[in-house]
Design goal:
433 residues; alpha/beta; seven-stranded mixed sheet; Urease, subunit C, domain 1; TIM Barrel; binds zinc ion
Length: 433
């Protein structure tokens, strides 16, 4: 009994409700598609899936179900970050990264998965992890071993020898190459096949240079068009989408023309790139919050001095190009590059997106319906509707008036399990059952 109580008090902060059937009663529920509110809304779910939603007066409550009381709060679908690295931390940047083992990265991922979920992100697309740590973390979360968001994972990102997704910190005598290095169309195809063999949901490719890597240039192409085409073709043939890391103008266009599904960073996109993205229906993902963190904290965190200089060169341009792409009507999904800045701060990007032109609703759509569409979760996540996962968060305040309320999420439910509830005292909430 004592042991049971101890365990109960340990887990109440984590899972308040282990049965994925029940209901929540929201003061208001945001329909993220239309931008309208349903007042006094009831959401009923069974086995983790929503069965009915609507005004409490019109939705019938199954016998014996007491809804979670969120009558003082605004509810919306759980948020999705389509560019995350749960197994990495900012203080693991630069030379310090060489001392972090693959098993340690997996455990770092478990801690970050919890932080991210508690911050209201019930889904992430993890685009780049060493040693298939992201596959292991996804499977551990799905098995209920550790709390975390739904994960859609890429495994090791494909890249050229010496490129952004290789490891360039070690001297030649170490003969080290990163997991995802593959040069030439056929080697790249083989790497796509290998990643799929070990359980990835999508393919990540480093098309251009990057900021945090040593000795390369964000604007310079790395993979050739021919290689990108081979990667996209092989991945699509095997039923996987492709996300391309591309800061550089040419690499963005090469990736879009190769049929890649989303452009990550998109920093130096030009008018032609924007037109191509619209024509091909390619999603653009602009990680425009982390510039603040890199410039302020990057050196202290261990990032290379050259990385700070590179960020100074493209950070502002990326924000301006975000505004331009948004005004041009490209498809956009919310991705932050979590791990470059501390996990759990993902929602800080909403305010930057609004500062650079989006309406709060559009920024929220980028992190819900658009993100779900890109990942392949349309209708299942990013909405609260019959047939969707019971993934729902609540905030105090109106996110359409002040998007920053999303930085203070008070309630988190994933698949009908409540992981956070600050709307009512934790013990009272647990005791109701
Ligand atoms: Zn990234």
């Amino acid at each position: 009994m004592t042991k049971h109580l101890l365990l109960a008090s340990f887990f109440t902060a984590c899972v308040l409700q282990a049965d994925p059937s029940g209901a929540v009663h929201c003061g208001r529920l945001l329909d993220v598609r239309s931008g309208t509110y349903v007042a006094d809304a009831l959401v009923v779910f069974q086995n983790g899936v929503v069965t009915s939603v609507g005004p409490a007066s019109r939705v019938s409550l199954p016998a014996g179900v007491t809804p979670v009381d969120l009558s003082g709060a605004v509810c919306l679908p759980g948020l999705i970050d389509v560019h995350d690295h749960l197994t990495a931390n900012p203080e693991h940047a630069g030379y310090q990264s060489l001392g972090i083992s693959v098993p340690r990265q997996a455990l770092t991922g478990a801690a970050n998965a919890r932080k991210t979920l508690m911050a209201g992100f019930t889904g992430v697309r993890n685009v780049g992890a060493a040693g298939f740590t992201d596959v292991a973390l996804r499977d551990a979360i799905n098995a209920g071993d550790v709390p975390g968001p739904r994960m859609f994972v890429s495994g090791p990102p494909l890249g050229i020898t010496g490129g952004h997704c290789d490891e360039d910190l070690l001297a030649p005598e170490f003969h080290f190459r990163a997991d995802g290095v593959a040069d030439g169309p056929w080697a790249a195809r083989a790497k796509v096949r290998e990643n799929i063999k070990y359980g990835v949901d999508l393919i990540k490719v480093c098309a251009s240079g990057g900021v945090l890597s040593k000795g390369d240039l964000p604007g310079a192409p790395q993979y050739t068009f021919e290689e990108l085409q081979a990667i996209a073709d092989e991945a699509h043939k095997l039923g996987r989408k492709v996300a391309a890391h591309a800061h550089g103008t040419q690499s963005i266009k090469d990736s879009i023309r190769a049929g890649i599904d989303s452009i990550e960073h998109s920093s130096l996109i030009d008018d032609e790139g924007i037109a191509l993205a619209k024509q091909h229906g390619t999603y653009l993902v602009f990680d425009i919050y982390n510039d603040d963190y890199i410039l302020k904290e990057g050196l202290k965190a261990g990032m290379l001095p050259e990385s700070i200089e590179k960020e100074k060169g493209i950070g502002k341009l990326q924000r301006q190009n975000f505004r331009h792409a948004y005004l041009s009507g490209t498809k956009m999904a919310f991705g932050t590059d979590g791990g470059v800045y501390p996990h759990g701060d993902n929602a800080r990007q909403f305010a930057i997106m609004v500062e650079y032109g989006m309406k709060p609703l559009e920024a929220i759509q980028a992190a819900t319906v658009n993100a779900a569409d890109l990942v392949g979760w349309a209708g299942k996540a990013g909405v609260v509707a019959p047939g969707s996962y019971a993934d729902l968060i609540a905030v105090n305040g109106d996110p359409l008036e002040d998007v920053k309320v999303l930085e203070r999420v008070r309630f988190v439910m994933k698949g009908g399990e409540v992981y956070r509830n600050e709307q009512q005292p934790v013990l009272a909430a647990a005791g109701r059952r």
